């Protein structure tokens, strides 16, 4: 029986270098080198030895059988992985406001704000507020009011009197009489005094 270093030497003699510099070994060449040192292995035995003792070469055979081809692993070459991309079945779809606001069971309205942001109320520029017209606003809610022919955002106050408070200037309130907005009747709020 040959010694391990003799088998290693036969394996190294069987290595062929391609034009691109890739090192490969075929099982037939390896067995032919073993015959030179008076050792006769079958192709299956040679494959088994390569798989156990040579971890730098990997099987690149394209056909099944005992005649295998092994190539030296080269990290600069691309490695084909055996699993698909996790994003392969991902399909992006656009989100509609109705899907984003499913907590409303009643019809809602969407309004695009044009103009400056109301940073004190937490409303950023170009925000799209969702308006639930079926609900009565609680104390301190932000509502959309028609004021002097224009729609504007106001904070509703019920106490001490029914009033709409400006978001940017909390000291300015518009009193509501009879459930409708009257003319521009502005007075400082109680909180500002």
TrEMBL record:
Sequence ranges assigned to domain Peptidase S24/S26A/S26B/S26C in this UniProt record: 79-167
Pfam families given in the database record: Peptidase_S24
Highest taxon, organism lineage: Bacteria
InterPro entries: LexA/Signal_pep-like_sf, Peptidase_S24_S26A/B/C
Name of the protein: Peptidase S24/S26A/S26B/S26C domain-containing protein
Organism, as annotated: Rahnella sikkimica
């Amino acid at each position: 029986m040959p010694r391990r270093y003799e088998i290693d030497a036969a394996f190294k003699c069987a290595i062929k270098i391609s034009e691109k510099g890739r090192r490969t070994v075929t099982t037939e060449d390896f067995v032919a080198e073993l015959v030179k040192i008076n050792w006769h292995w079958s192709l299956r035995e040679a494959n088994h030895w390569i798989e156990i003792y040579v971890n730098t070469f990997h099987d690149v055979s394209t056909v099944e059988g005992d005649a295998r081809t092994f190539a030296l692993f080269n990290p600069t070459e691309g490695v084909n992985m055996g699993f698909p991309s996790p994003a392969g079945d991902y399909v992006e779809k656009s989100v509609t406001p109705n899907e984003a606001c499913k907590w409303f069971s009643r019809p809602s309205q969407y309004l695009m704000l044009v103009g400056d942001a109301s940073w004190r109320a937490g409303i950023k520029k170009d925000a799209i507020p969702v308006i639930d017209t079926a609900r009565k606003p609680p104390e301190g809610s932000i509502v959309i009011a028609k004021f002097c022919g224009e729609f504007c955002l106001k904070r509703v106050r019920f106490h001490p009197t029914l009033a709409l408070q400006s978001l940017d200037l909390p000291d300015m309130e518009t009193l509501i009489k009879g459930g409708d907005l009257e003319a521009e009747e502005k007075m400082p709020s109680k909180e500002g005094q």
